[in-house]
Write a structure and sequence with these properties.
- The protein contains 18 helices and 13 strands.
- By secondary structure, it is of the alpha/beta class.
- It has a six-stranded parallel beta sheet, sandwiched between helices.
- Helix 1 crosses helix 7 (167-188).
- It starts with 9 loop residues before the first strand and ends with a helix.
Length: 398
């Protein structure tokens, strides 16, 4: 088996729910050893989020695969001392508590950096570790709004909508994983020390907003919701078909536009010099969208997609979970893998993304049961069975 690229990197995951754990999951997929510290009793609240099987979320199998679970009560001094002991030999520590929480426990950046100068610390929070909003609670839905994406999402004249997933959390997790990899490179390839990575949910979303701010800065333009269209880039929209389905068509490339107009029988538009470039098409987007939908409305989505594909026009249908599970391209690419939970349930989960040709990563372990690895991890840290038993009696570990 090819050696996994992050083999030998030890990560302490102190966060819960989505952002911090998603960053850790990304590293785990490529071989990092993840020690997930959970609260005795209930553990990570994600265990009870969304749909449950025998009391545990099936989401858990996607988010916590390739991890080990140790139960330590961080509110107790002895629990804090245990985590510090684990941090002495760790490469990375990930936390997504409200700013100031780790400092209250004696495990702020300065404390841990003195303890282990090579340690890299990822801190994920709603608003960052400083600034006037640092102490406010931050969740993905709020971050997505502050980051600018919610204002422009939805149908014109209607309440702005959120994505159906916790986009702010997962995007922050990806930024966090990137930051960790950059810090590891600086430390290991260039002989540097560990450093702290400050990731804010709202900034992670803000980083995705493309021309939103430059257009306001240059022209005072405030982009509004545009439904299925992409304002200023034309034609690109969702078009209703005869069977009630919507086909997505991205005909905004100059040569693609000509092919699209030929397919829908509008050679006049294909040959119009005013429509040869995007700026000209954007000025007449309503006319173009009407012409395209007149064509899609007369045929089923399957018929429309067949003609568009034959003409090499980017197009597709809107996928549900069933569509994803049954799509042959997903299966052929290995993007869907199976994990068997502790109680024997076989669950489809997203596979390893991104794909590396030489060190592709792997799912080698299911999501752990609560505290499943407590004894083994503490023994590796040098505690005797007697010491572990005493800590269990006190409720420090479980």
């Amino acid at each position: 088996m090819t050696q996994q690229i992050l083999s030998g990197i030890k990560v302490l995951e102190l966060g819960q729910l989505i952002a911090g754990p998603f960053a850790a999951k990304t590293l785990a997929d490529f071989g990092a050893e993840i020690i997930k510290v959970e609260t005795p009793g209930d553990g990570d609240p994600l265990r009870k989020w969304r749909m449950l099987h025998n009391g545990t979320s099936v989401w858990w199998q996607a988010q916590s695969r390739n991890k080990q679970s140790v139960c330590i009560d961080l509110r107790q001094k002895e629990g804090q001392a245990l985590v510090k002991q684990l941090a002495e030999s760790a490469d990375v520590i990930i936390e997504n508590f409200r700013p100031g929480t780790m400092e209250k426990w004696g495990m702020g950046w300065e404390d841990l950096h003195r303890l282990n100068p090579k340690l890299i610390m990822l801190r994920v929070s709603g608003y960052g570790q400083d600034g006037p909003k640092r102490d406010e609670p931050g969740f993905a839905a709020i971050a997505e709004a502050m980051g600018g994406i919610r204002y422009i999402t939805g149908e014109p004249g209607r309440v702005p909508v959120r994505a159906g997933v916790s986009l702010g959390d997962t995007i922050a997790g990806l930024h966090g994983a990137l930051g960790i990899l950059l810090a590891l490179y600086q430390r290991d390839a260039r002989g540097g020390l560990g450093q702290m990575i400050d990731v804010a949910l709202y900034e992670s979303i803000f980083n995705l907003t493309e021309s939103l701010l430059p257009e306001y800065s240059a022209f005072g333009a405030v982009r509004k919701p545009a439904g299925g269209a992409l304002p200023g880039i034309a034609p690109s929209n969702a078009y209703r078909c005869a069977d009630g389905e919507y086909v997505l068509i991205a005909g905004n490339g100059d040569s693609i536009f000509k092919r699209l107009m030929t397919v829908i029988g509008r050679q006049d538009l294909a040959d119009d010099p005013a429509l040869a470039r995007n700026d000209g098409r954007a000025a007449r987007v309503a006319e173009l969208d009407a012409a395209i939908e007149a064509w899609t409305a007369a045929r089923s989505i399957d018929a429309a997609l067949q003609q568009l594909t034959e003409a090499s026009v980017p197009s597709g249908r809107i996928y549900s979970a069933r569509d994803i599970a049954e799509d042959p391209h997903y299966r052929a690419r290995g993007v869907i893998e199976k994990v068997r939970s502790a109680d024997g349930l076989e669950v489809d989960v997203p596979g390893i993304i991104p794909r590396l040709s030489g060190n592709p990563g792997a799912i080698h372990a299911r999501g752990p049961q609560l505290g499943e690895h407590t004894d083994a991890i503490l023994k590796d840290a040098g505690l005797t069975p007697e010491q572990i038993a005493i800590l269990k009696e006190k409720g420090v570990v479980a």
